[in-house]
Each structure stands twice: as C-alpha cells, then as structure tokens.
C-alpha cells in the first residue's frame, strides 16, 4: 500500500509538471524566455521551444498513459487505505491536477488569452468610429486600402482579411512592437493559423495543416514539417489613421469588436509607449531593450535608427544595402516614412529647415511621405522602402543579429 501511494504521488506530480512545462517555455514566465537585451546563437532559447513543441505534439498519449497508470494505485489507496488521510492526499492531488489541467488548457494557452474577432467589421471611412490619431497598420492591394488599428490587432495578434481580392494575415506582437502583413498561402495552399505562444518574446503561430510553429517577426517556420519555410511578407505601413486616410481617402478601417471592449481598453495607451506592463512599456532613453527604433532591411543588410534622434532631427539620410535612403517623420511625431533617395539616375541629398524638407540638388520641396510638391521635381515621388519598421530595440537585434546600429548622425 505504501508503494501504491508513492507510485501515485510520483505519477501525479509528473503529470502536473508536464502540463506546466507545455506552456512555461512558450509564455513570458520568469526564466522561460531569453532575457530582454540578451543575445545568443539561438540554441538556448530554441532548445526550450523544441521541448515545448515536442510536448504539444505528444501530450495526448503522455496524458493517456499517465492516467491509465494512475487508476490502479489510486484504486488501492482509496479502497484499502493504510491510513485514512491517504484518501485525502489522493483526492486532494487529483483535484490539484484537475485545476492545473484547466488553467493550462483553458486560461494560459495563448489563443485562449488573445482571441480572434467574433464579429469582424471592416467599414469605409464614412462609417468609421476609430479616432484619427490612433496608430494603424495600413495595407493596399489592387487599389484597395485597409487600415488596422494597433489597439485592436495588438490584442488579437492576428486578423485575417481580404484586400483587393488578396487573402492577407495582419499580425502584431505587442512585446516586440512588430507589425507584419503576410500572405497565408503556403506552397500554393491557403492555411489557417492560431496563436500558440512566443519565442524570444515574439509571438508564434501554429498552422492548422501541418502544426508547424512560425515566428511573427520574420514569418519563418522554426519547428515542424515546414521548418525553414517562410511566409511571403507584404508591405504594410505604420502611421496614424488620419495620415493614412489623407493618402488613401477611400480606405476601409477595421472596427472594434464589442465582445472585447475591456481588452481593447487595456490597450489604449500602448501605442504611446505608456503601457503598465514592463514587457510592453517603452523606455524613453535610447538604445535600451525597450527603446523604439526604426529597423530597415535591404538586399540582405539591416540597420537600426534611434527613434529619439529621428524625432529631434526630423530626417535621417543613410545607405542600406547600397540603397540611398531617407527616413522622415510626420508633424504628428508618430507616422514615419522610409524612401529611396533616387529619382531616376539622380541621388538626392535632403535638408530640413524652417519646417520644410528640400533637396540640395534642385531646391524642390518634399513632404515626409516623399512627394515633391514644389520646384523642378514637382509631381515626382520617392519609392518607398518596403521593409522599414518601428519596433523595440531588443526585438530588432534578436531577429537581425548582424544589424548595424546607426550612430553616425
């Protein structure tokens, strides 16, 4: 009887440990993720995620075997206890396991904490209720524009939509401040995704067809049958709804689902960097893990620019991947643009003075969007850099380990 109780105790605690570990390594618990601002080869953090992935793939049979093995010793202890209190131990631990099982699978799973829209509404500006000063992730396809408020997609983490006849997956990770737009078509087949957890503090999705796990910041499958495959990224833009609508007056706008009013309310200060949680709150100093940067990719090269410096100087000029680039910020200090400085065969040099952006070569006047509004080049437009993002510094350097840090200005 003593052996039966001991066997029961070992098994029940092992089952509890398996349930806890299945979420521990893919959720932001103390010690579960690579620390903010730390860097490694990826092996340490990935090893933890690999364990979590193995548990998720095998949890069904592990539970079944554990439950079957528990039946006999539990029966012996309950029906023929050596001590009366043995029954209470077995009953209490069974209740504890039931509680842990419920919490892990109903409360702690990422897709249970951050749910998809129930009543998705995407309406024209004439019906829009989102304030114009709210930050959005905008996307255009085949002449149709749509704006997705960060306050909304930051909670949902992903929203599926169709823009210009194209199926899109709008994603956002608040802990990394990464907004990405992807095509959900994998090897010619459309797929569905659910939020499963995080790696390096970045959201991870699981596809329905193969069960592979995908990083949100890069669109790469890091585990599963599709490991090494990447989703096709589509160009999105961060700016206020007012600035987006000025550029795209016929835009559609995602509206708040009334089923998640409290969740959206908790996100209202996020875009300003004023969140209460330390994982989502901005550090106003430069080059700290939670500092804002503009990350730019071009031709396999990447570089990060200090947001504070951009706000102060209004423009930053540089070369990334042999592409001469202009970073400019809007008067609202929220919206920004990244453009090539080439116009035909000419490379322009820009100055900002007296609240006016001009090029040295022709003295033409430009907007922060890269539109020439006066001078010899009037009507010309600079080509946008498709991979320019505002995010936390810890995120950018985690997923761009070879990135350069701009300190030349």
From TrEMBL:
Give the lineage. Answer: Bacteria, Pseudomonadati, Bacteroidota, Cytophagia, Cytophagales
What Pfam families does its record include?
DUF3179
Q: Which UniProt keywords apply?
A: Membrane, Transmembrane, Transmembrane helix
Its domain of life reads Bacteria
**Where are the bilayer-spanning segments?**
60-78, 85-102
The name this protein goes by in its record = DUF3179 domain-containing protein
């Amino acid at each position: 009887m003593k052996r039966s109780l001991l066997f029961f105790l070992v098994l029940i605690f092992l089952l509890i440990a398996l349930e806890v570990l299945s979420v521990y390594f893919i959720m932001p618990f103390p010690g579960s993720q690579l620390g903010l601002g730390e860097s490694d080869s990826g092996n340490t953090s990935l090893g933890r995620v690999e364990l979590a992935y193995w548990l998720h793939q095998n949890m069904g049979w592990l539970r079944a075997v554990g439950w079957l093995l528990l039946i006999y010793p539990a029966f012996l202890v309950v029906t023929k206890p050596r001590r009366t209190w043995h029954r209470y131990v077995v009953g209490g631990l069974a209740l504890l396991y039931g509680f842990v099982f419920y919490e892990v699978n109903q409360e702690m799973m990422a897709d249970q904490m951050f749910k998809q829209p129930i009543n998705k509404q995407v309406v024209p500006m004439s019906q829009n209720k989102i304030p114009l000063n709210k930050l959005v992730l905008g996307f255009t396809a085949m002449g149709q524009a749509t704006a997705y408020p960060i306050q909304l997609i930051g909670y949902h983490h992903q929203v599926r939509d169709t823009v210009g006849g194209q199926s899109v997956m709008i994603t956002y990770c608040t802990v990394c401040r990464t907004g990405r737009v992807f095509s959900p078509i994998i090897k010619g087949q459309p797929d569905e995704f659910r939020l499963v957890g995080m790696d390096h503090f970045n959201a991870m999705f699981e596809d329905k067809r193969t069960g592979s796990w995908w990083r949100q910041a890069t669109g790469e499958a890091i585990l599963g049958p599709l490991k090494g495959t990447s989703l096709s990224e589509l160009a999105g833009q961060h700016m206020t709804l007012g600035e987006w609508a000025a550029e795209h007056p016929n835009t559609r706008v995602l509206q708040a689902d009334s089923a998640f009013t409290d969740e959206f309310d908790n996100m209202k200060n996020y875009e300003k960097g004023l969140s209460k949680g330390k994982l989502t709150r901005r550090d106003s100093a430069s080059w700290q893990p939670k500092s804002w940067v503009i990350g730019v990719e071009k031709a396999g090269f990447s570089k990060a620019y200090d947001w504070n410096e951009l706000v102060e100087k209004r423009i930053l000029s540089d070369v990334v991947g042999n592409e001469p680039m202009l970073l400019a910020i809007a008067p609202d200090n929220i919206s920004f643009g990244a453009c090539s400085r080439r116009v035909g065969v000419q490379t322009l040099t820009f100055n900002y003075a007296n609240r006016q952006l001009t090029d040295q070569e022709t003295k033409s006047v430009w907007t922060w969007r890269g539109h020439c509004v006066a001078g010899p080049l009037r009507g010309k437009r600079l080509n946008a850099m498709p991979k320019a993002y505002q995010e936390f510094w810890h995120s950018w350097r985690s997923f761009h380990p070879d990135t350069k840090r701009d300190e030349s200005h």
